Amino acid sequence: MKISKKALGILMLSLVFVLSACGADNSAKESKSEKHSGSSSHEEMEHSGSADVPAGLQESKNPKYKVGSQVVINASHMKGMKGADATVTGAYDTTAYAVSYTPTNGGQRVDHHKWVIQEEIKDAGDKTLNPGDQVILEASHMKGMKGATAEIDSAEKTTVYMVDYTSTTSGEKMKNHKWVTEDELSAKS
Fold this sequence. Notes:
By secondary structure, the chain is an alpha+beta fold. Helix content is 15%, strand content 36%. The strands form two sheets. Strands 3, 4, 5, 6, 7, 8, 9 and 10 form an eight-stranded antiparallel β-sheet that branches. Strand 5 and strand 6 (110-117) form a beta hairpin. The radius of gyration is 20 Å and the shape is globular. It holds the Pfam family DUF1541. InterPro entries: DUF1541.
């Protein structure tokens, strides 16, 4: 049986569409199963990022964990983070906020995302924002975050850390993850 190039091309294109539809269905199922804090979902979290920090962010002069320190992450912002060994790559004094927002890309509402810092909020200035304040996010930790209108859930003056770590579930190496707070880390024993 001979198949023309055109028929083979159509068959291959159909196969691509079928497979991509299956992949989209699986990611939707995964999205529903990887919830965090109610309706918050962090599967699109940017695990690794640039070492660049927002303008105006001040390095901590006396952080509990200095750059290069070996620590353990006690937070579970995303799958594979809690209990992970990490290396501190940056320490900064600022105000960290938990925020709730609806992504600009039409994704599902994210509740209590931890953390967005003072310098990642449009026109925040130096004044600590209060729970209930409406802000525009300049952070891009997740798809659809930058430019989103958010509500401040909580505020905490603290030292925030950028860390490199290896996921405890996937083994994937995460570089320059932003942000974990001082109370979410412990010294590696």
